[in-house]
Amino acid sequence: MNSSVRSPARQLWAALRALLALTLVCGVLYPLAVTGVAQALMPGRAGGSEITADGEVVGSALIGQRYDLPAEEGGKSAAPDLRWFQPRPSHGLGTNTLNTRYALLVSGATNLSGDNADLIDRVTAAKAAVVRDNSVPGHPVEPADVPADAVTSSGSGLDPDISPEYAHLQVRRVAARNHLAAGRVAELVERHIDGRVLGFIGEPRVNVLRLNLALRQLVGGAVTR
């Protein structure tokens, strides 16, 4: 076999060896090493930051959930269950047969500009709903008191947290619907406010799932007493 034939064969064999070696290192050894280190040092985060209640996984601290009444007949959108603290809107999530508002395969923002008519109408309607749903006798909610996160979705559409302002805005409604004292519900919110990361990154926030799990315990305790 002359050198002109051997050279391409050597190059092909070298390329195949490189492919196999890189596949083994990058596709097997590296992922296993990273997974092992993550499971050893931070098993909760490595496992998806799962939140459990009564021995069952009820969600993730990283992904928001909705709290809606059962959907009406005819496929109409379900109304929010006002016994619970509500999350941010989840507009922007892709939709298909398996992907609907937090039960999803695709996430993302709406990418609508601030002067887009659809976005303006959506925010206006959301603000009116927040005012209507959270106003209780003797304590009406003023439109100016509605925080931005109550009427807009996050960049991913999956934000599990709300601002302390939005959580406190819902206190009287949640208390009334669950026959609790507003002061006790407000204390519950205060206990679930997470501060800025490292003291200066981000904003204070409240994880809605954790807050609602604590609310469920509070309601259960009030019923049994």
Query: Helix segment count?
Result: 7
Major β-sheet profile: 3 strands, antiparallel
Radius of gyration: 25 Å
Characterize the overall form: elongated
Secondary structure layout plus pairing:
Layout: H1 3-41, H2 43-46, E1 50-53, E2 56-60, H3 117-134, E3 161-162, H4 164-169, H5 171-177, H6 182-191, E4 193-194, E5 205-207, H7 208-224
Helix pairs in contact: 5-6
Summarize this structure briefly.
With 225 residues, the protein is mainly α.
How is this structure best described in words?
The chain is mainly alpha-helical. The chain has two domains: 3-43; 65-88 and 114-224, no CATH class. It is built from seven helices and five strands; from the N terminus they run ααββαβαααββα. It has helices at residues 3-41, 43-46, 117-134, 164-169, 171-177, 182-191, 208-224, and strands spanning 50-53, 56-60, 161-162, 193-194, 205-207. It has a three-stranded antiparallel sheet. Strands 1-2 form a two-stranded antiparallel ribbon. Helix 5 packs across helix 6 (182-191). The longest helix has 39 residues, at 3-41. The chain is elongated and about 95 Å long. Residues 94-101 have low confidence and may be disordered.
Keywords summarizing the entry:
225 residues; mainly alpha; two-stranded antiparallel ribbon; elongated
